[in-house]
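ok so i was messing around last nite and threw this chain in just to see what happens. nothing serious, just curious
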Amino acid sequence: MQSKIPALVLALEGRPDEHFRWKLSELLRKLDWLEEERARLDVRIDQLAAPYEEVLERLDTIPGVDRTAALVLLAEFGTDMSQFPTPGHLASWAGLCPGNAESAGKRFSGRTRKGDRYVRRTLVQSAWAASRTNDCFLAALFFRTAQRRGLKKAAVAVAHRILIIAWHILAEPGVEYDERGGDHFDRKNPERTARRLTRRLEAIGYAVALSPALKPIGLPNGGVKFVPPNTDSCRVDPAICKRCAQRKLSRCICLVKRKPRTPAGNSPTLSTT
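result:
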């Protein structure tokens, strides 16, 4: 409207007659009536949503999902997830899963099927809002997908992920959104990230030599501490592999913990204390 201010000033100049004033008064009266009706509807919605405040608060923890979007999701598929055994069933019902147009073993199109239009529109709008959130996993997923598939398909992919998160929140009591951070994919495989960034620097004429700035050190309580490479005051916990230590995990998820074997000739003893 900034560029239209001169035109608006000229439009306000003149001598409106009695009929024009009557039309303006009717429009203002209709606008006031609509505002009052909207206020009454908001009060009624709050009354109906009062028993589900705890669920709405947990849905609000998802980036891009505000109270209005949470109310739409709650109104469309409710809180009973027994009708959707898995998140895939809910995504299929909402029309946010890839299509399956296939004939004679040849796949033709992956266009999404038709579903609940209110859920689709709400979740896609939430996906666009999440893509503009700082240090957010959903924003990282959006731009990661947009590089390969485009912005619109990335928005649908993020909307699908939001729907899966909403299913877990509604199906499991007390569950909230767990933020992984905007650097989740970089921390997931740091070696691959280093190789990708090195190739980009080499493509513009730089010679890159990588050296680790910090090394992981296992702590007695099971945690991991990162110290300079020349620090030998602590030993690396053998129960934590190198990859899990680089991911800053408190315990190893790669190694299978086995029971210690009893030496030959010794029978195990049981303590009765």
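not much to say yet. Residues 232-236, 255-262, 267-273 have pLDDT under 50 and may be disordered.
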